[in-house]
């Protein structure tokens, strides 16, 4: 008997009121529109503590590199989605394996599951998230909505004709600081 165990993939991100994850200048300064709230410093770390692998898109990684952050999650086995082999060199050595992939992401999610990773953080961006949604590989979406609209910029899911996947609302609450937390779980079948 062959047991096929899949990973639980979570797209966890900050979002503007108009559904964008970055503004037209590729900046995340707008996230500061969220005022201080209880747990703001610890919540993301608590989430990260439940994660055992990460998937990141080239533009999201380039944004981090431009900010001088490097890849802050080098302790997590990470799959970088990019056509650019040079990006791996720019990240440098990491504690956990850092693997570049390109093309169809289906075998990538298969490989992550086969490696035994149960909870996977999709770090972004909207382009990679849109492909994962099209493949029905998004199991959970967790967004922190900032009280600001941006008008332009990549959206939560990018794609020309995304299939209409439905989700169940699992959480919907004021977070404090003007922000809202929404969490959905994929409703299959
Ligand atoms: N609000 C938040 O918390 C948050 C979270 C994450 C990201 N962001 C922001 O979102 C922006 C990036 O999002 P995005 O949607 O524009 O981009 P993204 O998903 O991070 O990256 C898209 C890029 O990845 C590469 N790529 C995507 N699919 C591929 C495939 N199947 N095979 C090979 N390469 C592939 C391509 O670049 P190459 O061809 O150049 O490799 C593509 O242009 C950044 O500004 C980032 O800071 C914000």
Task: Label this structure with key terms.
single chain, 189 residues, alpha/beta, 8-stranded mixed beta sheet, 5 helices, globular, binds NADP nicotinamide-adenine-dinucleotide phosphate
Description:
- It is a single chain.
- The longest helix is centred in the N-terminal third of the chain and has 9 residues, at 58-66.
- The two termini are 24 Å apart.
- This protein has helices at residues 43-48, 58-66, 86-91, 106-114, 126-134, and strands spanning 8-15, 53-57, 78-81, 98-101, 119-124, 140-145, 167-176, 179-186.
- The mean pLDDT is 95.
- With 189 residues, the protein is α/β, with parallel strands linked by helices.
- The radius of gyration is 16 Å and the shape is globular.
- It is 21% helix and 27% strand.
- It is built from 5 helices and 8 strands.
- The protein has an 8-stranded mixed beta sheet with strand order 4-3-2-5-1-6-8-7.
- Bound molecules: NADP nicotinamide-adenine-dinucleotide phosphate.
């Amino acid at each position: 008997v062959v047991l096929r165990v899949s990973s639980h993939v979570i797209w966890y991100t900050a979002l503007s009121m108009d559904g964008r994850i970055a503004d037209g200048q590729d900046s995340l300064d707008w996230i500061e529109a969220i005022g201080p709230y209880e747990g703001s410093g610890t919540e993301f770390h608590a989430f990260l503590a439940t994660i055992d692998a990460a998937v990141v898109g080239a533009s999201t990684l380039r944004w981090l590199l431009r900010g001088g952050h490097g890849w802050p999650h080098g302790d997590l086995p990470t799959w970088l989605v990019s056509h650019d082999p040079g990006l791996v060199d720019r990240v440098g050595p990491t504690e956990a394996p850092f693997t570049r992939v390109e093309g169809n992401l289906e075998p990538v999610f298969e490989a992550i599951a086969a490696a035994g990773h149960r909870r996977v953080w999709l770090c972004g961006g909207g382009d990679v998230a849109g492909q994962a949604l099209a493949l029905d590989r998004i199991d959970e979406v967790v967004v922190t909505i900032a009280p600001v609209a941006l008008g332009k910029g990549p959206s939560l899911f990018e794609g020309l004709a995304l299939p209409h996947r439905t989700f169940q609302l699992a959480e919907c609450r004021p977070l404090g600081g003007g922000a809202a937390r929404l969490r959905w779980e994929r409703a299959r079948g």
